[in-house]
Amino acid sequence: MFGNWHEVWGPEYWNQYLGGFKGVIASWIEKLSVFLPDHIFAVSELTANRLRKQLGYKGPLTVIKNGIDTKVIEATPIS
Fold first, then answer.
1. Which residues contact 36 (CB under 8 A, 6 or more apart)?
2. pLDDT of residue 45
3. Do the strands 39-42 and 2-5 form a parallel or antiparallel pair, or are they unpaired?
4. For residue 73, what are the contacts with CB-CB under 8 A and spacing of at least 6?
5. Distances (CA, A) of 77 to 46, 67, 68, 69, 70
């Protein structure tokens, strides 16, 4: 099973976002859910590093950056 990870929030953000008990539960869910996939695709090096350091993910990890090649778009003729 694969997982696509866009961002790691961490306990501080979850506490700020949801507060109190809800923030603690959300942080636990984020930490535990990293162990569900067999392989994770992260959208940035920052997210990959946070998966490893903050959430303790030790499995296979591939970075596939989101983005747009603006040079290709600029070179595309407009009809």
1. 1, 3
2. 95
3. parallel
4. none
5. 35, 20, 17, 15, 13
